[in-house]
Design a protein that fits this description.
With 283 residues, the chain is α/β, with parallel strands linked by helices. 41% of the residues lie in helices and 11% in strands.
């Protein structure tokens, strides 16, 4: 799996996502991250087919890593089985490189409900079935805590290969990251830029900008992505312009010093914050 990819959350406009995916592939991205809940799989499938048909692109399906995810409303064995088949159809592919359970819970249930555990176990059994068939090349989860991952040891014949969670200096996921590394689970960070809020020079975390000032050769976005990469996480930033696509991808070519990493690690003590879903209280 590539260490940096294109995230596509909140990009639903058909023309925009088609353009962005084609531009991303043209500048060097090889990982495209989507989900059934993003409602853009069809546009991504069209963009991929257009790219494969272009002789100048010189790309085929095997060159691309596709990640998609099971929505909370699709949980359960039958729901997950149907969802995978629908994703295959929309993405116009006969296999998905990585398929994740997007959230450890189901809708319209109290956070304490035992139904969450029952349904995610059934969903996992469906993922295992499609993995064994070769239709899904790797399987994993998203937004799972250590508690949820430990529980999987009771029912998973195939351990999760990936856990995709919010991660940035204000939400470093230190314990979860260490657990995943210890258990051979690849960690993928989403919201590396804090849903772009961390790039705003207003008052969310002024220390980030003071740290960034020490590296005028890098943008703050690049610094945040490099921080994630150097913590051995894959990153999937979204972008809508070719300039930002190129900027984000170039983060792979740089390093932060030990002192710079320590300074970024320390920001959370003052400014701890989630920008996205927090699964801590899901039973």
């Amino acid at each position: 799996m590539p260490s940096i990819g294109l995230g596509t959350w909140q990009q639903r406009d058909h023309a925009t996502i088609t353009r962005v995916v084609q531009q991303a592939l043209r500048v060097g991205y090889r990982l495209i991250d989507t989900a059934s809940g993003y409602r853009n799989e069809e546009a991504i499938g069209e963009a991929l087919q257009a790219t494969f048909a272009c002789k100048n692109a010189n790309l085929c399906r095997n060159d691309i890593w596709l990640t998609s995810k099971l929505g909370p409303k699709q949980q359960g064995f039958e729901g997950a089985s149907t969802a995978i088949q629908e994703s295959l159809q929309k993405l116009q592919t006969d296999y998905i490189d990585l398929y994740l359970i997007h959230w450890p819970g189901i809708p319209k249930k109290s956070q304490e409900s035992e139904d969450h555990r029952i349904y995610r176990e059934k969903s996992w059994k469906a993922l295992e079935t499609f993995y064994k068939r070769g239709v899904v090349r790797a399987i994993g989860v998203s937004n799972y805590t250590v508690k949820h991952l430990e529980e999987m040891k009771d029912y998973a014949d195939i351990p999760p290969m990936v856990n995709q969670c919010e991660m940035h200096p204000l939400c470093p996921q230190t314990e979860l990251l260490q657990y995943c590394h210890k258990n051979n689970i690849v960690f993928t960070a989403y919201a590396s830029l804090g849903e772009s809020a961390l790039l705003n020079p207003c008052n969310i975390a002024p220390d980030l900008h003071m740290i960034a000032a020490r590296r005028p050769d890098l943008t703050l976005a690049q610094i945040l992505l490099i921080w994630g990469l150097q913590h051995n996480a894959a990153v999937i930033p979204k972008a809508s312009t070719i300039e930002h696509l190129q900027e984000n991808l170039a983060a792979n070519d740089h390093k932060l010093s030990t002192n710079e990493m320590l300074a970024l690690d320390g920001v959370e003590k003052k400014y701890h914050r989630h920008f996205c879903w927090d699964p801590q209280n899901v039973a």
